[in-house]
Amino acid sequence: MVLPHDTILDVGKLSVSYRSDTGYVDAVRNISFSLGREKLGIVGESGSGKSTVGRALLRLLPTARITADRLDFQGQPLLELSEKQMLDIRGRRMSMILQDPKFSLNPIRRVGDQVAEAYLIHFKCSKAEARAKAMSMLEAVQIRDPQRVYDLYPHEVSGGMGQRIMIAMMLLTDPDVVIADEPTSALDVTVRLQVLGILDDLVSQRGIGLIMISHDLNLVRNFCDRVLIMYAGQVVESLKASEMESARHPYTQGLLAAQPRIGGSRAPLSVLDRKPEWEIPLEGAA
Amino acid sequence: MTDIVNAPKPASRRRSAIAPLLNVLRFLLRSPTSAFGLAVIALLVLLAIFAPLLATHDPNVQNLNNVLQPPGGNHLFGTDELGRDIFSRLLHGTRITLNIIFLVTITVGPIGLAVGTIAGYLGGIFDTILMRITDIFLSFPGLILALAFVAALGPSLNNAIIAIALTSWPPIARLARAETLTFRSSDYIAAARLQGASPFRIIMHSIVPMCLPSVMIRLTLNMATVILTAAGLGFLGLGAQPPMPEWGAMIATGRRYMLDSWWLVTFPGVSILLVSLAFNLLGDGLRDALDPKQMNRR
Amino acid sequence: MTISTGNASPRPVGLGSFLRPGGRVRSLGGQVVSILVTLFGLLVLTFVIGRMMPADPVRAIVGEDATQDTYRMVYERLGLDRPIWEQFFRYLGDVVTGNFGVAIRTGQPVISDILHVMPATIELATFAIVIGAGLGIPLGVIAAVNRDKWADNVIRVFSLLGHSMPIFWTGMIGLIIFYASLGWVGGSGRMSSFYIGLVRGPTGFLLIDSLIAGDWNVFWSALNHLILPASLLGYSSSAYITRMTRSFMLDQLNQEYVTTARVKGLSRHDTIWKHAFVNIRVQLVTIVALSYGGLLEGAVLIETVFAWPGFGQYLTNNLLIGDMNAVMTCVLIVGVIFIGLNVLSDVLYRVFDPRTR
Question: CA of C301 to nearest chain B CA: how many angstroms apart?
Fold first, then answer.
């Protein structure tokens, strides 16, 4: 595994568990990774724990028990910070783009105000300044008529527009890390690439470390620099996006074999045939 | 109308209904509040059954040499303005309370079910008319409408029961209609229709049984309101008439003496409060137990 | 099995659902028709209850010892010899022209009697709803935020207790404790008998009239008498408000935009009040409006206990002497108030919820 220089986020043996009637149930088990100013993908099927990882990093799981050997964000141990200190990190230095703008925007507040709020929370400034900031950010996500869009309500904007507003909201404060939790899976196929392109540009321009959480292996391998494959709460394999074909873990190989490709064999695509040994991560992956 | 409830069901269905019932019971007993509600209601039923055995005095025998005695000694809860033993009157009052609940429930259930399932299944003009009538009844607070009915029928316990029943079927009808709408388009109803079953038969055999569980729960939730309305009518002199030991009426007559003889109004009031609280706690627990959204998180 | 807990639908289901069966917002025209139909139904209902039941309206007017001739005269004057449909249209015409007849007990037109007693009840109910909402809404939010923790359970029992108490009895116990024993509040009536008649104001609301007149003694006396019945009514109405607030709030707290707000760095407190709570405000207005109508029910009982010269007492007094005409007019007015509150909450929905525009 290649260690990126300039590590922003260093995670060692992170576990997340929930209490149940019969003790604790693990949602995420002992995952380790580090993130620099790069694009890291986390791929897994639903229930694999990939979204939980994102929320655990922001400490947004009030009912869960989060443990880790290491959870350092620019040298600060996240798990030891007080809730008050976390408030300064969330939205300012680490933020998250959620899946579906239909639900992730507050339905009865104007979208522009919601974007501006992200700035107002963290910077001492007038409402007018925040408004101007939000306006220019809306422009940055290629909204042509920000003056008009600012005053719209979430139900009045399309999915693609909503997600661009979400991106504007989360990147407005110039965070160091952005987690994108399935940012395009609620969108029409036609606008997916456009939204991804905007996100890609902004992230590279500003040198933001991006964690892209998705179930879509093709999307992630094309978009990210490195990919973590999650299965049953664990990272079973970690590899460069460009070296995806040389995956060694049987689950990853199964996933790859299940992808259709142009010019490939016309035989029916293979279907994942789950085996218990899939839960054993590759040496060095975790 | 009552044969809707009593319609014979296949034995298999009844047997399969027992297991979920036990689950619900287990769930209820796990929460202290609904367990408390269940206990109070069980106690109420037992007291009503054994009232003559447990009563220390005849509830209606007056003793003018022994009026307004404070609690203690020979009279656990004291005596009223006519020297009657309050404890014994309360005990016999449990029978009246249960009687009211029972009669209202067996009237309201079938009416609500009939209106709701017919409106929901037949749809169209039937639905519009029946639901419009339901809405008109719903546009009054229950007690006010019950007052109007009792005023017209004349004050008595039976008329109070009729009035309460007449005012409490609309929510049941709405519920039954909503349930029916979810079943109406399902395949087994279509199958019954294809076999040539009449609408009446489909409603009776296929729709009513499906609506029964939620209607029963709603009826339980209703019981607290029924008790309070009946007590309110009794208090206003429009329900049970003296010398009946109905709790609301007891409070009404005790009111004149309340500043000097607090026990006259206190004990009947506590009884009403306890029983209605018990039904509310039980209903609240039932809602939790049967709400799928809530079950998921446990 | 679906049990309506008010969780699922964005609009509250309850007494208020009657103008909108589908739970969707109706067109204005449809709504007007719906209101008219409901009003007509209301009239049919009051007419049926008033005319077709055993109570004898003639006997109530002429008394038990009247001669056959007097009886017959009144019988015919009331139009009871006419066919039933003709009686109904006559009733309809009377109502439309505002002629509600004369109350037997006071000899005054029923409608002017009601206008006279209404301010006392509105004063009581308004005070009560302020207390009820002021108590119920914060408690509901706290319960939702602390779902299944001890605070939630305590609030649940507290509000169910308010929902379970027979208000006429609590009123008496309140009088025994706070008036007779502690002397903290005034007793029966709207003010001490000492002050009755001192202030005759333009509005009929004693608190306002005494302020206009600048008579502080009357003001304090009125407030002193108002506080206990209003608190008890308010507590009992807070039960429903608490429960609905909790359920609306739970619904909102599960929404993804709440996570968004947290991700942005808002504190829990700000997320709850600036994001989740603003989303339930409109629903709460409906609940509070409906509870306000429901207070009329409690007012009937509590006014009897506190000898409060309001609408509820007027209704029960007429009930007890069997003046069906006055009673039915009261019932009709309650129905109209309920419909009015429903329409009001519908209008508020349209105004405040951007999604319905």
Answer: 7
Q: What is the rounded CA–CA span in Å between residue B218 and residue A3?
A: 62
Residue C161 and residue B277: Cβ atoms within 8 Å?
Answer: yes
Q: Report the pLDDT averaged over residues A178-203.
A: 89
Residue B7 has pLDDT above 70, yes or no: no
Indicate yes or no: CB of B269 within 8 angstroms of CB of C163: no
Q: Write down the pTM of the prediction.
A: 0.83
Tokens of A103: 């639900």
Judged by CB atoms closer than 8 Å, whether chains meet at C38 and B287 is answered as no
Helix, strand, or coil (residue C186): coil
Confidence of residue A72 (pLDDT cuts 50, 70, 90): very high
pLDDT in tens, B48-107: 999 888 888 888 888 888 878 888 878 888 888 888 888 999 999 999 999 999 999 999
Rounded distance, CA A51 to CA A44, Å?
Answer: 9
Residue % of chain B over a pLDDT of 70: 91
Of A26-35, A104-113, A117-126, A265-274, the one with minimum mean pLDDT is: A265-274
Query: Does residue B8 carry a pLDDT above 60?
Result: no
Contact of A104 with chain C, judged by CB distance below 8 Å, is answered with yes
Overall average pLDDT of the B150-173 stretch: 90
The answer for C185, left when phi > 0, alpha when psi is -120 to 50, beta otherwise, is beta
Q: Which residue of A has its CA nearest to C256?
A: A104
Mean pLDDT, chain B, whole residue set: 84
Is residue A284 situated within a structural domain?
no
Contact A169 C355 (CB under 8 A): no
Q: What is the CATH number of the domain that holds A84?
A: 3.40.50.300
Interface contact A108-C353, CB threshold 8 A: yes
A98 and C355 in contact by Cβ < 8 A?
no
Helical ranges in chain B per DSSP H: 3-6, 11-30, 32-49, 51-54, 86-122, 124-138, 142-153, 157-184, 187-194, 199-202, 208-235, 247-254, 263-290, 292-296
Other chains touching A, judged by 3 or more CB pairs under 8 Å = C
Closest CA of chain A from C351, distance in Å = 12
- Whether A63 is in a domain gets the answer yes
| Residues of chain C predicted below pLDDT 50 | 1-24
Query: What residues of chain C lie within 8 A of the CB of A91, using their CB?
Result: 263-266
Chain B residue with minimum CA distance to C34: B132
Task: Give how many domains chain A has, as a whole number.
Answer: 1
Nearest-5° Cα angle at C134, C133 to C138: 95
Interface contact B152-C53, CB threshold 8 A: yes
Domain extent, residue A192, equals 9-278
The CATH number assigned to the domain with range B39-297 reads 1.10.3720.10
Chain B residue with Cα closest to C298: B143
Q: Which chains touch B (3 or more CB pairs under 8 A)?
A: C
Q: Is residue A105 a part of any domain in this protein?
A: yes
The yes-or-no verdict on residue A141 having pLDDT over 50 is yes
Residues in chain C closer than 8 A to B262 (CB atoms): 176
Measured distance CA(C127)–CA(A10) in Å, rounded: 59
Shortest Cα–Cα distance, A121 to chain C (Å): 7
CA distance A139 to A198: 11
ω into residue B243 within 30 of 0, thus cis? yes
Closest C-chain CA to B275: C164
Q: Which residue has the higher pLDDT, A257 or B108?
A: B108
Closest by Cβ to C18, choosing from B135, B277, B281: B135
Q: What is the ipTM of this complex?
A: 0.88
